[in-house]
């Protein structure tokens, strides 16, 4: 076996994001089919967030980390580390299920506010995405090349 390239940790995280995106796609489609079958549309928030955030955003994160993996094979990228990528993965995967759970908790007891807390975790994961960091200047890019 050869020495692992600099992008291998990001490839692992990208694969994990794609797997989780497929999981949320399956759950969202099953919930949508159940809502159609039973004629109940009380879970629209849950269904839409499973599909939009769980599938769309997580697949986007996976594609971004796959792109970062290819770029980091040539050398380390400034501001992008596997530790930060792992932290984002876990923040996102704690935030979304908590937000979804908070959306179905009873309103009268105030338990639904837990969803807001987990929504902030999801927002923190989005803001810690490497795509939200500034790109290196042309001078830095030329120096690395």
Q: If you had to describe this structure to a student in words, what would you say it looks like?
A:
With 145 residues, this protein is an all-alpha fold. It contains five helices and no strands. The protein has helices spanning 8-38, 44-72, 82-104, 114-127, 138-144. Helix 1 runs antiparallel to helix 2, helix 1 packs parallel to helix 3 and helix 3 (82-104) runs antiparallel to helix 4 (114-127). The protein is elongated, with a radius of gyration of 18 Å. The chain starts with 7 loop residues before the first helix and ends with a helix. The mean pLDDT is 84.
Number of helix segments? 5
Number of strands: 0
- SSE pattern: HHHHH
- How is the biggest beta sheet arranged? none
**Bulk shape:** elongated
Runs in which pLDDT lies below 50 for 5 or more consecutive residues are: none
Structural class: mainly alpha
Span of the ends, CA to CA: 27 Å
Task: Assign a percent range to the helix content.
Answer: over 70%
Rg, Cα atoms, Å? 18 Å
Instruction: State mean pLDDT (0 to 100 scale).
Output: 84
- Strand-residue fraction? under 5%
Concise account of the structure shown:
The chain is mainly α and 145 residues long. The chain is built from 5 helices and no strands. Helix 1 (8-38) packs antiparallel against helix 2, helix 1 (8-38) runs parallel beside helix 3 and helix 2 (44-72) packs antiparallel against helix 3.
